[in-house]
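Board notes (copied after class):
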Amino acid sequence: MLYHLFKYLREAFETPGAGLFTYISFRASMAMIFALIIGLIIGKRIIRMLQRKQIGEEIRDLGLEGQMQKKGTPTMGGIIILLAILVPILLFGNLKNVYVILMIVSTIWLGLIGFLDDYIKVFKKNKDGLKGKFKIIGQVGLGLIVGLTLYFSDSVVVRERVSKPTPTSKLMIVGGEHAQRIWLEEGKSTKTTIPFFKNNEFDYAMLSPVQGEHKQDWGWLIFIIATIFIIVAVSNGANLTDGMDGLATGISAIIGTTLGIFAYLSGNVIYADYLNIMYIPNSGELVVYIAAFIGALIGFLWYNSYPAQVFMGDTGSLALGGIIAVFAIIIRKELLIPILCGIFFVESISVVLQVGYFKYTKKRYGTGRRIFKMTPLHHHYQKQGNAGIDAIIQRPLQALPESKIVICFWIIAFLLAVISIVTLKIR
């Protein structure tokens, strides 16, 4: 709103200083500061409100180090994160930008699904919460909205460099002292970026069951299916990772910072041309959103770091994963998710392997066996005892302090973020 107000003041009255709000860097900085302050201020009040209403986490004794000390800690703290994201972006964001609108819709949509899940657990005393199929339906619904908007909206285009001018191509002059002329073809695209490859673009239409001139007719459908899958996978991956004080919060902040760098580069024609990545007009506005996202997470970490005063619950974790997924899809970096969101990926895989192996061994040997002491993976290091190969050779495995596990996972997430950025040049 402030962006549109000062834009009007600048254009109508030439108000001194109003032009400052046209700079993405300024608005991103202000969004981050406001998000951090909002998180710190309302965080304390919301925690007190949750304590008064006795909205505490129900803890089952699973034999985890320090687990029972968390009993009664307020949950549904994801409300703090959502408010700290939405208020700054509404103030400093360009609310006419289709990408910003998509991110706001994604934040509210998944936040409501998570809130409903937490509400059922806390107030209805149903530990299972919202049924899994309803969560999936909600995530699929968001995937449809995002996929259809990105392909069919007239505001969403990709500009690709072409060697020769065409009737529809546009001339751009890039560079300073050694400026060069480049021709960009603007239009719809189902392409995305492939890391580690020289000609690093992959077209979803290549997966079309129909080849030839009708191949592209199937490309948009495959793109939408991929969008749905990515949103569901990353959202649930973040949800599984949220099991220790500050774990999902810190990892999400690191991922968000990396995505912010990618968004800035993708929305700048000079950097996009230099790095030979897809230039996505107007995507630079997403830097303002991701700055608010990072500021909100840092503010929430003040209360969520060990020992946590509040848990984000599904209200926060489902939204965080969905935000990261939608953001990556918009800037066409979704194929980097297995690297950038490697922690989420491994946490999810650990659950799948554990359940699959347990069912297989129970069917074959009559007794279910485990690969890990407990899943998701972070609990494996928190639980005393042995599992898998360590149980066979009787190698003792000691439980690690929760704070150490979280810091180690943060370090790994930081390393994966650096590798993701390096993929811009390693091809």
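Comment from the instructor: The chain has 15 helices and five strands. Strands lie at 158-162, 169-174, 180-187, 191-193, 201-203.
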